[in-house]
Structures are given as C-alpha cells and as structure tokens.
Amino acid sequence: MESLHRFYNRDALMNGKNGESAKNCPVFGVESGIPPIGLGILLLLFAIVPFFIHGIPAPPLPVIAILIMSGAVFIWMGIYR
User: Distances in Å between the alpha carbon of 34 and those of 29, 48, 56, 58, 68?
Assistant: First the structure.
C-alpha cells in the first residue's frame, strides 16, 4: 500500500501543485527548453553537414526538408515554451 501511495504522490508532484499541470517540456519532461533546442540544432546539422564534407553523399531533398523542418520546430518549441 505504501508503494501505491508513493506512486500517486510522484504523479501529483509531476503534474504540479494543487492539480495544476506543470510547465514541463512535452518531449523530455524537463522545465528548461535546452534539450529541444539541442535536438533541433542536431537535426539541422544532420541536414547541412553532408554538403560541406566531401565523400559523404547528401541525402535526398525530402529527407533534408524533413530534417530542417523538424529541427526548426524543436528549436521553436524550446524557445517559446
């Protein structure tokens, strides 16, 4: 019974005080916006770096577009949270 009580207390702490939802990152569960920004920069690097390093074939245009758009969304999500 004690472990069940701890589980519900942990859930209440994660959701904020008095039943309010905490302003955590929806992807990483942290309060700062740093992890989504880092992931966005990493996705942008995956899209851009193959153009500057000879010997690495560039991915197709749809893959590049998806990486750039996903990176931009993650950066936006980290900044405006």
Answer: 11, 21, 29, 28, 18
